[in-house]
Amino acid sequence: MNPRFIHSIDELDNLVGLGPGERKEMEQVTETFPFRANEYYLSLIDWKDWQDPIRRIVVPDIRELKGGGSMDPSHEKDYTKLPGLQHKYSQTGLLLLSDVCGGICRFCFRKRLFINCERETIKDISAGLDYIRAHPEITNVLLTGGDPFTLETKRLEAILKELREIEHVNIIRIGSKMPAYNPYRFLNDPGLLDVLSRYSTPQKRIYVMVHYNHPREMTEVSMQAIEQLIRAGVIVLNQTPVLNEVNSKPETLTQLFRKLSFAGVSPYYVFQCRPSLGNRFFQTPVERSYEIIQQAWKACSGLAKRARFVMSHATGKIEVVGKTAHHVIMRYHQAADPANIGKTLVFLSDPMARWFDDYRQHANPENLHRVSMPKMQWLF
């Protein structure tokens, strides 16, 4: 099976039958934010349930046009060294290989790739590879986009080959939602699995960072794709944001974490949904997200709760590590400035805060507790 891609509301209407009101609203949304899905993924939706969580992930919603947001919430342009290459953290290089995905998530933090005419991805990545060769501190490279698995297998193989020839690149990561959006990409192309097997070695593994946002995405055929990736010697980890009306109930995340760990997929990051343009209704407040995760973990084994809850902020990955009645505790899990890694921050609780900047803007240094790091004035 090779699922047919759906690129327009007209095609979606022909496939599932939309009401005239909802079709009009969807077309209004797609004037700003494009739509892309496929027949396989759309078949997972209960079209009689307007609140179906899979529908929320991929189908345009009029609420995307309300509220603010940024086209580049994590300031990725500040860390773009060459077209298609970012270098934010010392040991990690990031290559944007594609501006196409198996589907377009409505909450995508890089939706500018699908909106702007200005391209951030490039076909010729030779300059980016030269940059990586010239920076021996880069021990791992993240291939992302868009979705690298939208590339032809031969193209992806050529990139993996060149990276493996760089001695100091020990880890290659591939960020992808393809196992959820289109597992047949792996099941119908044994050549792709052969390539991954060849370049994921016992000494230098390939990691595929999958994006399951809801347990219903983990279908039988999707789990077959995961099994093939694991048999190819790939390490599979999962990332998801907390998403309002998708996985914002503790029992939903519990089920997701458990199914992932049962299948041998380790939860890696749980993100606070970034404040991208059109994302506000997907965001739950930071402290509410933290509480949802803590509740979800109560029914999970240690293997199912290895993820860290982080915000991918412009200054680094800020982990939310604790909460009291009056304060929220964070630390820099990773930072653009290495000197900030591990710094602990304690802010007064703000139940309405949806992003790190909400705390910074309202923090009063006289009321801020400084934990183990006395020099924190630079934050304000």
Which features characterize this protein?
globular; 380 residues; 12-stranded mixed β-sheet; disordered C terminus; alpha/beta; two-stranded antiparallel ribbon; single chain
Summarize the structure.
The chain has 380 residues and is α/β, with parallel strands linked by helices. It contains 14 helices and 14 strands.
Report what the structure shows.
The protein is α/β, with parallel strands linked by helices and 380 residues long. 30% of the residues lie in helices and 19% in strands. The protein has 14 helices and 14 strands. A 12-stranded mixed beta sheet has the order 3-4-5-6-7-8-9-10-11-12-13-14. A two-stranded antiparallel ribbon has the order 1-2. Helix 13 (286-297) links the parallel strand 10 (266-272) and strand 11. Helix 7 (153-164) runs parallel beside helix 10 (190-199) and helix 12 (250-262) crosses helix 13.
SSE layout and pairing:
Layout: E1 5-6, H1 9-16, H2 20-30, E2 37-38, H3 39-42, H4 53-58, E3 80-82, E4 85-86, E5 92-96, H5 112-115, H6 126-133, E6 140-144, H7 153-164, E7 171-176, H8 178-181, H9 184-187, H10 190-199, E8 206-210, H11 220-231, E9 235-242, H12 250-262, E10 266-272, H13 286-297, E11 308-313, E12 316-323, E13 327-335, E14 344-348, H14 356-362
Parallel strand pairs: 5-6, 6-7, 7-8, 8-9, 9-10, 10-11
Antiparallel strand pairs: 1-2, 3-4, 4-5, 11-12, 12-13, 13-14
